[in-house]
Amino acid sequence: MSKVAINIPAPNFELADYTGKPVCLSDFRGKNVLLVFNRGFI
């Protein structure tokens, strides 16, 4: 995976929200976005 540089737009990607509906990063263009990737620990 390539590194993301500072002050360069993030690459577009799509993930499912908590209801399973797909959401694209580009849907939030021009807005502040906070991404949280939770990991499960066993």
Description:
By secondary structure, the chain is an all-beta fold. The protein contains no helices and 2 strands. A two-stranded antiparallel sheet has the order 1-2. Strand 1 and strand 2 form a beta hairpin. The protein is extended and about 35 Å long. It starts with 13 loop residues before the first strand and ends in an 18-residue tail after the last strand.
Number of helices: 0
Q: Termini distance? A: 26 Å
Average of per-residue pLDDT values: 84
Q: What kind of sheet is the major sheet?
A: 2 strands, antiparallel
Q: Which strand-content bin applies to the residues? A: 5-15%
> Residue ranges: pLDDT <50 for 5 or more in a row?
none
Which short descriptors sum up this protein?
mainly beta; two-stranded antiparallel ribbon; 42 residues; 2 strands
In short:
The chain is an all-beta fold. Helices cover 0% and strands 14% of the residues.
Topology (SSEs and partners):
Blueprint: E1 14-16, E2 22-24
Antiparallel strand pairs: 1-2
